[in-house]
User: Fold this.
Amino acid sequence: MSVWALEAEGLCYGYGARPVIETLTLRIAAGARHALIGPNGAGKTTLLHLLTGFQRPQAGRLRLLGSDVTDLSPEARVKRGLVRSFQITQIFPNLTPLTSILLALAERDGKSGGWWHPLAGDPARVAEASALLTQVGLASVREIETRRLAYGQQRLLEIALALALKPQVLLLDEPAAGVPREESAALINHLLALPPSVTLLLIDHDMDLVFRFADRISVLVAGAILVEGTPIEIAANADVRRVYLGDGPL
Ligand SMILES: Nc1ncnc2c1ncn2[C@@H]1O[C@H](COP(=O)(O)OP(=O)(O)OP(=O)(O)O)[C@@H](O)[C@H]1O
Ligand SMILES: [Mg+2]
Assistant:
């Protein structure tokens, strides 16, 4: 069995004639808390689009848990356990977290069956939804409309919705952007509390948060991995300091 949850090999992508990802190779170990950092415009979000299948690489291969998924649609990758968290709270502002998760579970199981079926009618699914909300610390607000939740809680709901899809690999693009510091700490704690059966790849600019989260860090600069290592190695790396962090303290 492969120890790699996700392997990208020789990925190339450009918008028009302009290359953005250049022969990039990245391996994420199963169970890792892996962070991807890099300056604005380095290509982090583009790489995430390539991993999820939202955009197709012009060259290179992608393997998920040892199987080649390069030619699979985004939906087929989700079914195989590659899930990204989307900012969806604007879509369901008037629903409660519980109803939102119940909808996601019904959709996942292909049993939505129409809006007239009571969502809360299936005790097993209500129990699963409750467990997911507890996992991300939202149990006490599960009956409050999402638009009334704190911003950090809304981001946590998005993570719970992604977890409802039973990811083996969960990709998070700046989940704490705009979240107040007290709430972003809670968000990272909930991510760190996820079982190791869920491999995590986090993109973020907040170095405090990244260094608290990651056991492995890759630094993307101008579409290529400049360096990869443990947080200690990355913090001490002269190239990282020079190119990415302007030589200041990490
Ligand atoms: N749809 C697009 N069309 C053309 N160029 C794009 C498009 N999306 C991104 N780019 C360009 O590709 C490069 C990489 O963008 P990308 O969003 O992947 O960077 P990023 O590392 O996620 O940046 P940030 O840290 O600001 O989120 C940038 O120069 C950006 O301007
Ligand atoms: Mg981005």
